[in-house]
């Protein structure tokens, strides 16, 4: 598993190298969001405001909001609306009440049309006011309404009687009269405090009532999530999941990412890194595999997690110089100027082009044209990585493995090295090929011809 930190440059590389795939995934997510919008009909929401006059504490307002959205109120609203196929339990999921600033309760209703949403909010508001008035004792029952007033009249009469008794008592002449006047005053004080508590406990004394602040406004737009929200959310979610999937796959990848790690997996020395033009080859294999065609169409037939070159490669002469230096190091390492086996993984187009350039350098080596024959003759062999098989050793002086950076796992590279060892070939070195950007020539002359890919049938020299 890779331990490299995830940087913004990595995410930017995903968007650059997987642009077509991300566009297709985003379109698929948008289609899924559109399909979801067809399954869920549009909803409309509006609110009705109720003013609670008097002084209310915050916890009391919260209690009133809970009462407004309770089944006792919503069921009455459902019975008054009498909508076919809509029960009180279903309406409870569409009604929401909350306490706002200024002793205001906002009741929101959601329905499948603006008219129904308006009627639902207004009806729940009316039923809530009626229900709260009945709870607070504000009913039309004359006896219940007159009971508090009758009690107050009795208290007033009792106070007058106490005053008469206090005046009739001998004021301060005897101890008994003083005690009687004191007891009467205590009784008057107790009655006054009892009436004060009764007034405070009466909701009609400190809370005049509830007022509906006009009808609810008819909604002009759909309640979220709208169709646009679902389409955008589907596209964004699919896009994020794809990017996260790329990052997780990169973290779990076991492909060596550096030249030294690749050479260590092959058990050989690194001879150098060569550059090949990064453009796609003009002629692709004419396979009829639909999966391969789909991968090419989506742009996933090339790896994205290989770091991009920091600057464009030089011209053709600079690239040939790098190949020539690698070839010089290889000649210095070989024991005798015999044939050399160039092993490349099957399907590695970058390694194929690099091997072709090495074969071209070997063909133009002056040591090969001399009578001494002091340069090896390369022979290119392309082996499958799933079941690698290398020809048996004949007169070859070793095997040179040429492969691209970050394309193969350590197990696949070890399999190639074992195949070379089974065939009797010693891996004399490793060459890593990197695809780089090429500079656009500013002159009007012809651009240098690209190196032709080399396969099993192409040989650098005779046997």
Features:
463 residues, alpha/beta, five-stranded parallel beta sheet, 14% strand, transmembrane helix, transmembrane
Describe this structure in words.
It is built from 16 helices and nine strands. Among the domains are: 8-39 and 225-252, no CATH class; 259-436, no CATH class. The chain has helices at 8-17, 19-39, 58-68, 71-81, 88-92, 114-135, 142-168, 175-201, 203-206, 227-252, 259-266, 290-298, 316-333, 349-363, 366-369, 410-422, and strands spanning 44-52, 95-100, 104-111, 210-212, 270-277, 339-345, 377-383, 396-404, 427-436. Helix 4 crosses helix 6 (114-135). Residues 439-463 are annotated as: Disordered. The chain crosses the membrane at residues 21-40, 230-250.
Short description:
This protein has 463 residues and is an alpha/beta fold. The protein is built from 16 helices and 9 strands. The protein has a 5-stranded parallel β-sheet.
């Amino acid at each position: 598993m890779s331990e490299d930190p995830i940087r913004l440059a990595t995410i930017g590389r995903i968007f650059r190298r997987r642009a077509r795939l991300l566009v297709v995934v985003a379109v698929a997510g948008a289609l899924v969001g559109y399909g979801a919008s067809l399954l869920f009909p549009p909803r409309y929401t509006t609110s009705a405001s109720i003013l609670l006059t008097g002084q209310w504490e915050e916890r009391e307002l919260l209690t009133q909001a809970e009462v407004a959205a309770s089944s006792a109120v919503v069921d009455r609203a459902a019975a008054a609306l009498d909508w076919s196929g809509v029960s009180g339990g279903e309406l409870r999921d569409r009604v929401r009440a909350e306490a706002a600033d200024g002793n205001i309760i906002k009741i929101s209703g959601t329905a499948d049309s603006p008219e129904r949403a308006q009627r639902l909010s207004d009806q729940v508001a009316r039923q809530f006011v009626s229900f709260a008035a009945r709870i607070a004792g504000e009913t039309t029952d004359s006896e219940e309404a007159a009971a508090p007033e009758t009690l107050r009249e009795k208290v007033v009469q009792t106070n007058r009687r106490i005053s008469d008794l206090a005046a009739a008592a001998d004021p301060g002449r005897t101890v008994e009269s003083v005690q009687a006047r004191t007891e009467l005053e205590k009784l008057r004080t107790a009655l006054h405090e009892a009436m004060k508590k009764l007034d405070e406990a009466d909701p009609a004394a400190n809370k005049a009532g509830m007022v509906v602040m006009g009808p609810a406004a008819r909604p002009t737009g759909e309640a979220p999530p709208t169709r646009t929200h679902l389409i955008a959310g589907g596209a964004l979610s699919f896009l994020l999941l794809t990017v996260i999937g790329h990052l997780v796959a990169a973290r779990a990848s076991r492909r060596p990412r550096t030249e030294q790690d690749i050479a260590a997996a092959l058990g050989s020395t690194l001879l150098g890194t060569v550059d090949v033009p990064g453009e796609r080859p003009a002629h692709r294999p004419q396979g009829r595999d639909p999966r391969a065609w789909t991968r090419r169409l989506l742009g996933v037939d090339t790896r994205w997690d290989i770091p991009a070159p920091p600057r464009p490669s030089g011209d053709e002469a600079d690239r040939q110089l790098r190949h020539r230096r690698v070839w010089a190091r290889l000649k210095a390492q070989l024991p005798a100027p015999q044939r050399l086996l160039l092993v490349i993984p099957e399907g590695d187009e970058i390694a194929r082009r690099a091997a072709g350039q090495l074969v071209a350098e070997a063909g133009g080596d002056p040591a090969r044209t001399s009578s001494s024959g002091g340069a090896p003759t390369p022979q290119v062999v392309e082996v499958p990585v799933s079941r690698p098989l290398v020809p048996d050793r004949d007169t070859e002086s070793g095997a040179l493995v040429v492969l691209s950076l970050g394309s193969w796992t350590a197990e696949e590279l070890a399999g190639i090295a074992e195949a070379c060892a089974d065939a009797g070939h010693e891996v004399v070195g490793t060459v890593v090929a990197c695809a780089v950007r090429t500079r656009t020539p500013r002159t009007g002359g012809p651009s240098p011809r690209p190196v032709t890919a080399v396969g099993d049938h192409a040989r650098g020299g005779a046997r």
